[in-house]
Every structure is written in structure tokens, then in C-alpha cells.
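Suppose you are handed a protein chain with no further information: no name, no annotation, nothing but its sequence. What can you learn? This example shows the usual starting point.
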Amino acid sequence: MPIPSSILTLVLGMILVLGGLWIGQNVNLLPADASANAPVYDELFRVLFSIGTILFIGIVGLVIFSLIRFRRRPSQRGDGLAIEGNLPLEIFWTAVPAIVVLFVGLYSYDIYDRMGGMTPLNHGMDHSAPMHDPSPPDENGERVWGGIGTSSIQAKDGGAIAAVPIEVTAMQFAFLFRYPQGDFISGELHVPAGKPVSLRMEAKDVIHAFWVPEFRLKQDVIPGQPTVLNFTPTRPGTYPIVCAELCGPYHGGMRSSVVVDDPESYEAWFNANNTLEVADA
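A reasonable first move is to predict its three-dimensional structure. Written in C-alpha cells, the prediction is:
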């Protein structure tokens, strides 16, 4: 007794969905996670990878099946059947992608919010400024265009943990990092593991982008419009900083490194470069 096509389609669909979910949850294509934001982003990646796997395998499988099942036989000389439309099928392939896109959009918004992308950048807010102005001034009175900020990080005693402030300057074709607490500039970004870091970034010429794949963070750096990027590194090591915005003929060579030190090593590195401390001595 042949299996009804509806039951066979249902079983194959269940196998496809379960297989895609398994692949999305168990196949890891991302580099090591090295910031507190990374696990949050990885949740979204696994969901998108599962959906993409299901669609890819399903579509490729259907194409291969169609090529074999409905191929033209040597004895066939006429045209195929003229199929003009199938309303239930058209409703199905319109409704399902619409639901998937809506789900991905809402879930992406939630992930971006949890990463701090929707946190109001109201440092030093000037209450006399127009309410519709989306770029409130920062502590220096300059307007911050946008960025990813995290909610206030609390210590075990309930107090807030102060972030390490670093000023990032992007130019063709390099990143420079200034540590205002020590008044020195470095060509390599050093940050302490387990402590929040706040980058205030601005470009000197064209639009650049600060991207650390292991942090799962990328933020545009714009001339005349400062942006911020807050994160907490978690895994000591050295990771590449890549400019992810086409900025000129040597864009591919615009790279630097971020070194995540343990707190003691960071303190030693900072003291060795601290010009204010040397000047006071």
C-alpha cells in the first residue's frame, strides 16, 4: 500500500525542521566569544542559521527531486502541462515567509536591545535641547550621534562599576587609542578582562567602522559625529580589530589589535605608559 503523499510530505517536513534545528544548535561557525555581548548575539545567529539551514536543504532538495521526478523522458515530444495557478500554495508560500520575517525582525530587535543598542545615550543631557533631537550631548558637551551602550553594571554591593574610558580616533588607515586617565596614545587597544569599557569614537576623514568579530560588536566611526561603544571583555587574549566600512584604497590593511589582559597585567601595562604619573614623579 503506497504511503499517501500528504503523510510523506508531513514526515519529510518534520525531519527537515528537526535536522535544521539540530545543525543550527550544534554546528558552530563563529570565532571564540570574548565579550559579554557575544553569547547574546550568538543566540540570534543560531536561530538564523537554523532557519537558513532548513530553507537551504528544503529548497535544494525540492529542486533535485523536481529535476529527477519531472525530467523529460525520451518518448515525450510535446509540451508539459500548463499549470496556471494554485491559490492554496500561493497563500502558503506568502504567509510562511511573512511570519518568518516578522519573527526574525522582532527577535533581532530584542537581541539588539539586550546588547544595549536601544539604551538612551543621555550622558550630560542638555534639557534645553529640542526633544526631537536624537543626539544628546556627552560629558564634553559634544553631541553623540549613536552607538551601543549597556545598561548600568552593578557590583555585588549594589554600586555601579565605572567603565574604563578610551577615546578612539579612526583615520586613513589606522586606529589610535587615547587613554584620558593616563593622557597617552597607543596604537594597540588594551582592555582589562571582566571590567566594562566605554569607547568614544570619531573619524578624522571618512566613515570607518570598528569591528571585533570575537566581541560580536561593530560600530560606525563618523567624522564630526561621535559614536560610542560599550562592552565588557571576558576572555584574555589578542583579537583583530577590522575596519568594516570601505574607506579608501588601503581599506583592507586598516587593522589593529585589541589585547584583553587580566586585571593585574592591564594595570602594569597602564602604569608603564601613564605619562601623567611620570610627569608627577
